[in-house]
Amino acid sequence: MVKWLPDQTGRFPKRPHYEPMEIDRDCETLVESFLLKKYGRIEYPISTDDLSSMIEEHVEDLDPYADLSEEGSDVEGVTRLTLGRRPVIEISETLSSSESRQNRLRTTLAHEFGHALFHDPVFQSAFGSGDLFDGNQHSLVSRRDADDVVAPTKDWMEWQAKYASAAFLMPRKAVQACMRTVWEGEGKIPPVHVDEPTARRMVQGVVDRFQVSRDTATVRLIELNIVTRQRRPPDLFG
Q1: How many angstroms separate the CA atoms of 165 and 233, rounded?
Q2: Residue 162 and residue 164: Cα distance in Å, rounded?
């Protein structure tokens, strides 16, 4: 059950708090249901076309070739929330048209879908009760940044959308099953330090299996406590 907390950013009177497992569950359920309905089986990676089709089932419109230049040169995606309507997602034409940035496109699509799925209900509830804004539309803007962890305490909306993006593209159960064969085959107990050869092989395995960047794969494995940046204390009795 969703826990509600005061919104320290001032966007809403209160905001939803999701545990990572809750976001994982909701995203994985949605992806699996879509793939089973379309193909009768679950296989990864989910293609960019299928990711777009899945998103289109839940939004008013998905425009993958939008002109977002007025939003700023570093804006790659926008989710527009409007009272009484489903969200509209716009992806920059410069991103969608770049053959060399397809992993970034997939991450951005999934990120904006995270905003639409988890934050539109908050918007509808808050604005519908007269507690939010002077107008009836609000835009959530995604700017270009490194594929790294966003602290929940820094910006809860961006953290939730970024975590959801990873959960859509690299569902928890699928990643764990894929990586288990690696760490068990090499006699390792996770979390494995990111600099170890086993960790590097696991990162590459996620890159190959789920069609994401190395940075995105690394962050996901850290989120799932399969890989770590923390050094273990020396074993005094080893």
Answers
A1: 33
A2: 5
User: Same structural domain for residues 97 and 162?
Assistant: yes
Tell me: do 163 and 179 sit in the same domain.
no
Domain that holds residue 209: 173-228
Give the pLDDT of the chain (238 residues) as one tens digit per residue. 678 899 888 888 888 999 999 999 999 999 999 999 999 999 999 999 999 999 999 999 999 999 999 988 889 999 999 888 999 999 999 999 999 999 999 999 999 999 999 999 998 888 776 555 545 667 777 665 544 544 555 789 999 999 999 999 999 999 999 999 999 999 999 999 999 999 999 999 999 999 999 999 999 999 999 999 987 655 444 4
pTM beyond 0.85, yes or no: yes
Question: Amino acid identity, residue 2?
Answer: V
Q: Which of 45, 96, 107, 27 is nearest to 68 (CA)?
A: 96
In a domain, 4, yes or no: no
161 within a domain of the structure (yes/no): yes
Distance (Å, rounded) from C-alpha 9 to C-alpha 156?
9
| Distance between CA atoms of residues 146 and 229, nearest Å | 17
Within this chain, do residues 110 and 138 fall inside the same structural domain, yes or no? Answer: yes
What is the count of structural domains for the chain?
2
